[in-house]
Amino acid sequence: MPITKVTIDEGYPVGQELRTKGRVRGIKVVVRVSVTRSESPKKTESQELRGTYKPDPNPHDNPAYNQRKQQPKFYNAAAEAAARLLTADPYALVAINDLQFDWEGQTYRTERWDRSAPSYRNKWRVDGDEEPE
Predict the structure, then answer these.
(1) According to the model, what pLDDT value does residue 6 have?
(2) Which residue, 34, 40, 55, 120, shows the most beta carbons closer than 10 Å to its own?
């Protein structure tokens, strides 16, 4: 069924720190959306999109990141950037090497991080499949 509208639910997007045992750190983005389809314009369905990214440069090298309670602001800035294309076709999180955002005087570029954590499955687009690790 064709999508007519996608809206980001209140309280989203959310960005979080993601770590692995190898101490590699990344960004976990979670966005809940409401999807409206042409066949049932008064009914919406909820979907959760998830993506993981590795930032460059390392945010720990930015003095602002290391100040008390600043880390959530960094991860939420990344999530906002990742979700910026969700409400228009192709209704997906920003693609792998296209995510770029500025935070506290530094420009961050990212790459997609598919093998981030064994229990975590990315879902990059509305109606897309979860991608196995």
Answers:
(1) 93
(2) 55
Q: What is the C-alpha to C-alpha distance for residues 117 and 21, in angstroms, rounded to an integer?
A: 9
CA angle 100, 78, 59 (to 5 degrees): 85
Q: How confident is the model over 67-124, as pLDDT tens digits?
A: 988 999 999 999 999 998 788 888 888 765 678 899 999 999 988 776 656 667 788 8
What SS3 class is residue 73? helix
Nearest alpha carbon to residue 53 among 124, 119, 132: 124
Strands 25-37 and 14-19, how do they pair? antiparallel
- Phi, psi values for residue 63, rounded to 5°: -55, -30
Give the residue ranges of DSSP H helices in the chain: 71-82
Q: Report residue 114 as tokens.
A: 């598919």
Query: What number of other Cβ atoms are within 10 A of residue 22's Cβ?
Result: 6
Cα separation, 102 vs 115, whole angstroms: 25
